[in-house]
Write a structure and sequence with these properties.
The protein is 39% helix and 16% strand. Helix 5 (131-146) crosses helix 6 (161-182), helix 6 runs antiparallel to helix 7 and helix 13 crosses helix 14. The protein has helices at residues 20-25, 30-37, 39-55, 81-85, 131-146, 161-182, 242-254, 296-317, 331-334, 363-374, 403-413, 426-430, 434-444, 450-482, 510-517, 525-553, 555-558, and strands spanning 2-4, 70-76, 92-95, 98-106, 112-120, 123-124, 150-157, 186-196, 199-202, 208-209, 237-238, 263-272, 280-286, 348-356, 502-503, 508-509. The chain has 17 helices and 16 strands. A hairpin with a 4-residue loop joins strand 15 (502-503) and strand 16. Strands 2, 6, 7, 8, 9, 10, 11, 12, 13 and 14 form a ten-stranded mixed beta sheet that branches. It has a four-stranded antiparallel beta sheet with strand order 1-5-4-3. Strands 15-16 form a two-stranded antiparallel sheet. The longest helix has 33 residues, at 450-482. The radius of gyration is 37 Å and the shape is extended. It is an alpha+beta fold.
Length: 576
C-alpha cells in the first residue's frame, strides 16, 4: 500500500538552534535536509493518506491462537522540544490494530512521494493514560505469573524520559498487584540488573559485576545460576510493603550507569510458601536503543533474544519436536534462562512493547523496530501429514492420546482412584502449570497427596521427553546422512586402497582394525611415533656405515680397469 503524489517546490521555515546541544541534534543527512525543505508538501500527502486509511479502517481482532504466548503491543513517543522547534513533521501513526510508518522520498522526476509500511500489533499504550493498558494487558500478565507461568515483559525501541516513567509505573503496579493477589501464598523478592555487552552489573549492590555459573539444571529452589543453596548471585530485596520498593525503583531507573546503551532487567521471584512448587518469575526487560553507535555485542543480544523467543514459541506449538534454544549464546538470554527451559509444568509468556519515534528523524530505527517486533512470533507452520509409505509406525505421542488412553495411563502410573480420574485429554494436561494441574486433580481427588500428584506430572512429561529424544536422534541421523561422502562411480573397486578393502578374517578393513586397536591409547601415539623416528634414523646410519665397509672391501676388485685390454705380443723365441 503505497501513496505517491507529486508536490510543488515550497520551502518550510526552520528556526536556528539556540545552543550547542540543539545544534548537534540538528545535524542530519543531506537527504533528510532536502525532505524537510518541502515538509509542507509531505504533510499534505501524509494527511490525505491517513484520512484514507482511517476511512477504510480494519476492526481490531485478537491475536492468533498459534501465537498466544507472544503478545505484541506498541506505543508512539511524544515529540521532543527540539523536534517541535525544528518543525519536524510526524511520520508514525497508530490506527488500531496497525502502526503506520510514512517514509517520504523523491522519485526520478523529483516529485514528492510517501511509501507506507504497516505492522500489526495486539494493543496500544497511550503514554498519557497507562491505566487502560495496565488493566488490559499487565493484570492478566500478573495473574498468569501467580499460576506459575514465567512471564516476561520486554520493552524495546526509543528511550525517552516519558518511557522511563511508564516503565517505573509498570514495575510498581506489578509488585502492588502481586502483594494484593498473591501475597498470601507467594514470597516476593526482586533484583535489578544492567547488562552491557558480556557483563552484568547488580544495580542494588554498587554496580558490582555478577559472576554467574552457567548450568542446565533447574531444581525446585529456583536457582538457575549454578548455586545449590537456592540463592542467586545477585542481590534480592524482599517485598513486603509499597514503602520499601517504590523508592528503590525510582533511584535505580534514574541512576542507570550507561543509560540507554545497556539493557535493564528487573527480575521478580515468586517463591511458593509450600516449598513443593517451582518458583515463578516475572522478568521486566528494557532493551538498549539501537543506533549507529551501538556495539556488536548489543546487536548480537537482540538477535539471540529473537531466536530464543521464536524457538520457545515453536517448542510450545509442537511439543513432540526437539527444538534447540540457544539461550547460552548471550549474557542477556542467559539471565533469562528460566524462560527458555522446557520442563515439567513450566509455561512461558512474552508481552512485548515496541516504542516508536514520532517524527521523520526516527524513520530508519522505526522500520527496523517494526521488522524485529513482527518477527518475534516466527512463522506459523501447517501440521505435518504422515505419509502412507513409511515402514513401521512410531508409538503414539502423549499429545495424540484420547480420553481412553489418558485414563489408562493414570491407572497405571498414579495413585488417583479410577473413578476419580478427570476426563481430560493429555494434550490439555501438558499445557497446564503445576498449580493448575494440582487444582484440577485436587478438585476430583482431594485426598491424593500433593507430592504424588507432582510426581505423576513429572512422569507424564517424561513420556513426552522420550518422544523428543527420538525426534532428536532422527534429526541427527538425517544430518549425518546429508553430509555422507558418496563413492565415485568412475572408480572401480579394484582400484581401492588395499587397506580400505574389508578383510574376511578381520571382519573389517585393515585401517579400521588398526584404529580400533589404538583406541584408548591415543596418549601413547606421539611417544611411539618419536621412538619409531629415532629408530629409523639409527637404522639408516647403520646401513650407510655397512655400505661403506662393503665398498672398502671390494675396492681392489672394483678398481681393476676392465675397459682397456692390452693385445698379446707375438713371441719371437721359444724362451719367451
Amino acid at each position: 500500500m503505497n501513496g505517491i503524489r507529486a508536490a510543488s517546490v515550497r520551502k518550510s521555515g526552520r528556526t536556528v538552534p539556540q545552543n550547542a546541544a540543539e545544534e548537534k541534534s540538528a545535524k542530519m543527512p543531506v537527504k533528510l535536509e532536502r525532505v524537510l525543505e518541502y515538509s509542507h508538501e509531505f504533510e499534505d500527502i501524509i494527511a490525505d493518506e491517513l484520512s484514507n486509511i482511517r476511512a477504510s479502517g480494519e476492526a481490531p481482532s485478537k491475536a492468533a491462537e498459534s501465537a498466544r504466548n507472544v503478545v505484541l503491543c506498541s506505543t508512539v513517543a511524544e515529540k521532543s522540544s527540539v523536534e517541535v522547534m525544528e518543525n519536524i513533521f510526524e511520520t508514525t501513526f497508530n490506527v488500531e490494530p496497525y502502526i503506520y510508518l510514512m517514509d517520504p522520498s523523491f522519485d526520478f522526476r523529483n516529485s514528492a512521494r510517501v511509501q507506507i509500511q504497516r505492522y500489526r500489533f495486539d494493543g496500544f499504550l497511550d503514554q498519557r493514560n497507562t491505566k487502560t493498558f495496565q488493566q488490559t494487558f499487565i493484570k492478566p500478565f500478573i495473574e498468569d505469573a501467580c499460576l506459575g507461568v514465567v512471564s516476561n515483559f520486554i520493552k524495546m525501541g526509543k528511550n525517552t524520559r516519558k518511557n522511563t516513567e511508564c516503565l517505573e509505573e509498570i514495575c510498581i503496579y506489578t509488585i502492588e498487584e502481586l502483594l494484593s493477589s498473591a501475597g498470601s501464598s507467594w514470597k516476593i523478592s526482586f533484583s535489578c540488573l544492567e547488562i552491557f555487552g558480556s557483563k552484568a552489573c547488580d544495580l542494588l549492590n554498587m554496580n558490582q559485576v555478577i559472576q554467574s555459573e552457567p548450568t542446565d539444571s533447574f531444581d525446585k529452589t529456583g536457582s538457575v545460576y549454578g548455586l545449590s543453596c537456592g540463592q542467586s548471585t545477585f542481590t534480592e530485596v524482599p517485598c513486603t510493603s509499597s514503602k520499601q520498593y517504590a523508592p528503590v525503583f525510582s533511584r535505580v531507573l534514574k541512576l542507570r550507569k550507561s543509560s540507554s546503551k545497556a539493557h535493564f532487567l528487573c527480575k521478580i521471584r515468586l517463591k511458593h510458601k509450600s516449598g513443593q512448587i517451582d518458583d515463578s518469575w516475572i522478568n521486566i526487560l528494557d532493551l538498549a536503543a539501537l543506533d549507529g553507535d551501538t556495539d556488536n555485542l548489543t546487536r548480537k543480544s537482540y538477535m539471540v533474544l529473537k531466536e530464543c523467543i521464536r524457538a520457545r514459541n515453536r517448542a510450545t506449538r509442537d511439543p513432540n519436536r526437539f527444538v534447540q534454544i540457544p539461550f547460552q549464546a548471550s549474557k542477556l538470554t542467559e539471565l533469562l534462562r528460566e524462560s527458555f527451559i522446557v520442563s515439567r509444568g513450566r509455561q512461558t509468556k512474552f508481552l512485548c512493547l515496541a516504542s516508536f519515534g514520532p517524527t521523520l528523524m526516527d524513520n530508519p530505527l522505526n522500520i527496523d523496530l517494526g521488522k524485529f517486533a513482527s518477527s518475534l512470533r516466527g512463522f506459523i507452520k501447517l501440521p505435518n501429514t504422515h505419509s502412507s509409505l513409511q515402514v513401521g509406525e512410531a508409538p503414539p505421542s502423549p499429545l495424540d492420546w484420547e480420553l481412553k488412553e489418558t485414563s489408562q495411563w493414570f491407572e497405571l502410573n498414579s495413585d488417583i482412584p479410577k473413578q476419580r480420574i478427570p476426563k481430560v485429554r493429555c494434550s490439555d494436561l501438558l499445557n497446564l502449570t503445576q498449580i493448575q494441574f494440582l487444582q484440577l486433580m485436587k478438585g476430583s481427588s482431594p485426598t491424593t497427596n500433593t507430592q504424588s500428584l507432582l510426581r505423576t506430572l513429572e512422569e507424564l512429561w517424561r513420556e513426552l521427553e522420550m518422544c523428543k529424544s527420538e525426534d532428536k536422534e532422527r534429526m541427527v541421523s538425517r544430518v549425518r546422512k546429508g553430509f555422507q561422502i558418496k563413492e565415485s562411480r568412475w572408480r572401480g573397486r579394484s582400484e581401492w586402497d588395499p587397506e580400505d578393502i574389508d578383510d574376511i578374517a578381520l571382519g573389517t578393513s585393515k585401517k579400521k582394525f588398526e584404529a580400533g586397536i589404538n583406541r584408548g591409547f591415543e596418549k601413547n601415539i606421539p611417544r611411539y611415533e618419536k621412538r619409531t623416528k629415532d629408530m629409523m634414523q639409527l637404522e639408516w646410519a647403520g646401513k650407510v656405515k655397512a655400505s661403506d665397509r662393503a665398498e672398502a672391501k671390494l675396492y681392489p676388485i672394483l678398481s681393476i680397469d676392465t675397459k682397456q685390454s692390452q693385445p698379446k705380443s707375438r713371441r719371437n723365441s721359444i724362451y719367451e
